Known about the structure:
Elements: H1 5-23, E1 33-34, E2 38-39, H2 41-44, H3 49-58, H4 68-80, H5 82-96, H6 105-124, H7 129-163, H8 175-194, H9 210-236, H10 251-264, H11 268-279
Antiparallel strand pairs: 1-2
Helix pairs in contact: 4-5, 6-7, 6-8, 7-8, 8-9, 9-10
Amino acid sequence: MESDLPFLQNTCKRNVFLPSRKMLPSTSVNSLVQGNGVLNSRDAARHTAGAKRYKYLRRLFRFRQMDFEFAAWQMLYLFTSPQRVYRNFHYRKQTKDQWARDDPAFLVLLSIWLCVSTIGFGFVLDMGFFETIKLLLWVVLIDCVGVGLLIATLMWFISNKYLVKRQSRDYDVEWGYAFDVHLNAFYPLLVILHFIQLFFINHVILTDTFIGYLVGNTLWLVAVGYYIYVTFLGYSALPFLKNTVILLYPFAPLILLYGLSLALGWNFTHTLCSFYKYRVK
Length: 281
């Protein structure tokens, strides 16, 4: 009986552990999936960036296929425990061989938040109907999408060019993941500046007093600080990147600018409101 034990162990390894490597393709460079999405010739076509993008855009108008409950869960935890959100990105990499979201539900909910909060912003600033529509288009197309595309592309280039570990050159940061990181970081900023701040604008922040720009600028400090921190978590979650702590360095000039604004009486929210009113004229 003991002589048959090695044979049984080898049989188990062939029959059990080999399929498990196929289930977790990103665990080995020499397995079915090599590096970050480099597949064999049979599966390569359906795992290219173009194929993933087409699949994502195709689902954008199929609301029944979207998991809005899970997207809402992510939005909640982006405030309370953003590390848990990025832990889910690890699971997606293991099961679907991509870091970026394949479900546009988060983007749809974020768009709804943008519309509702911007309409509220227009109401608080006493804008007319057409002015509010112009403001909505500006916030969605420029502040969120336009700036997001720029930041995501810049971070995608910098991370792949300078942050990938030397021994992990077969890996790369997906552009879609860089855009997801921006959306994750943008959501808390949006809620703080376009929702929470609305309750203080007319009666506190825009009163041209020290308390006014103290409250307003503090909200800006928290919102931008959230953006920096969630962005840092997004890239530090990738195991093949190094020196991601440099993404926290913008905290230093941010705090310096905050102190300088209080000393000079510079009200960030007043500047933003004046800019919005100028853009919608």
